[in-house]
Amino acid sequence: MDENHIYQYSLVNALMAGVVDSGLSVQDLLSKGNQGIGTFAHMRGELLMLDGEVHQLLAEGKTRVADESDQIPYAVVTQFVAQETIEVQLKSKDSIEKVLDGFNKHSANVFMTYRFQGNFRTLKCRTVKGQEYDGQPLSEVGKNQHVQDYENIEGTIVGFRSPEIWQGFFVAGEHMHFLSADKTVGGHILELGDAKGTIGVATSTNVHIELPSSQKFNETKLALDNTGIRAVEG
Ligand SMILES: [Zn+2]
Q: Which GO terms describe its biological process (predicted)?
């Protein structure tokens, strides 16, 4: 992939509909970029790709490096090259918005990607535990998520900001996953407090979307559930 192009496999709408049985292999996903986020088959945990490794962030604060053959039903990745890198202090999750708004290539209508590395005074992450039955939608899977609080933890955020108009294809607004510096814990970020570190930011105007060719994807009636996405991915 060219630098700062975005590659996405499947759609958030498909995740919401529970179309998560199979997908792209980790090996194929690694050829698409150097950082990204997503989930695993049957929504067993959160995915974070960082510099040639795909990490599976599991409930109860465990992680593993994914096998090349693991199936990824949804992921968004980019060949990230920061266009600007600055030192920042983030009071809360919303502070990311202000940092991105201050980036001189910012526009509400293009994608933004970023990587933050630093220390978090407080951090709240969730990990989905996985489907309890075939086809269980994300809105239900999310109700049984594992939530973990951390204090004074070092680590990395991989994040994407997608324009509002793309809701349902992507997660509109911020979508961030975290991996600790020692790579032992991580998850989808719900809240953060008083983080200090370095953020690299880039805009992206090239988006490549690959849709699943599975029978399940073809047969599922996809719909936009704006409220549901905000509840589970906010
Ligand atoms: Zn997530």
A: acetoin biosynthetic process
* Average pLDDT along the chain: 94
23 C-alpha to ligand 1 centroid (Å): 17
pTM for the full model? 0.95
Ligand 1 centre to CA of 93 (Å) is: 14
Tokens 């700062």 belong to 4
SS3 218: helix
Structure tokens, 150: 């951390």
> From edge to edge, which strands make up the β-sheet containing 35-39?
62-65, 53-58, 46-50, 35-39, 74-78, 6-9, 207-210
Centroid of ligand 1 to alpha carbon of 37 (angstroms): 7
What the chain holds in terms of domains, given with CATH numbers, is 6-233 (3.30.1330.80)
Residue 19, pLDDT > 90, answer yes
* DSSP designation for 67: P
pLDDT tens digits, one per residue of 203-233:
999 999 999 999 999 999 998 989 889 988 8
CA dist 16 → 132, 141, 192, 221 (Å): 15, 9, 25, 11
